[in-house]
Amino acid sequence: xAQHSGGEHADRRASGALEAEIxxxxxxxxxxxxxxxxxxALAPGLAYKTVLTVLGRLHAKGMLERKRVGRxxxxxxxxxxxxxxxxxxxxxxxxxxxxxxxLQRFVExxxxxxxxxxxxxxxxxx
Length: 126
Fold this sequence. Notes:
Blueprint lengths: L14 H15 L3 E2 H7 L6 H13 L3 E6 L2 E6 L3 H15 L3 H11 L2 H11 L4
Antiparallel strand pairs: 1-3, 2-3
Pfam family, one: Penicillinase_R
InterPro entries: BlaI_family, WH-like_DNA-bd_sf, WH_DNA-bd_sf
Organism: Streptomyces roseochromogenus subsp. oscitans DS 12.976
């Protein structure tokens, strides 16, 4: 198996990590952004074409809406960040063999403030 030892591949991000970074930029902006605006908000050195490709993939997955603005497209998230995170958590839970054990381990890893917030959401009988 080939391994990369530095060079141009050393700074490459995993596709999912770059998607997450781009979604974070769009959520924090609160308004539609063009690919060039997203590129400017990310770490320097990321190619415009790479940003455009990832935006296109996110749009194809249904994560982003886009509309034409002049010759470019402006992108914005279809759902708020909390909704997407909750869906990801649900997907992980559904993959578990023993859902109760997965939930127990999850709660055990929460810091006290998050645990208190969860208990408040579940109600006084939880």
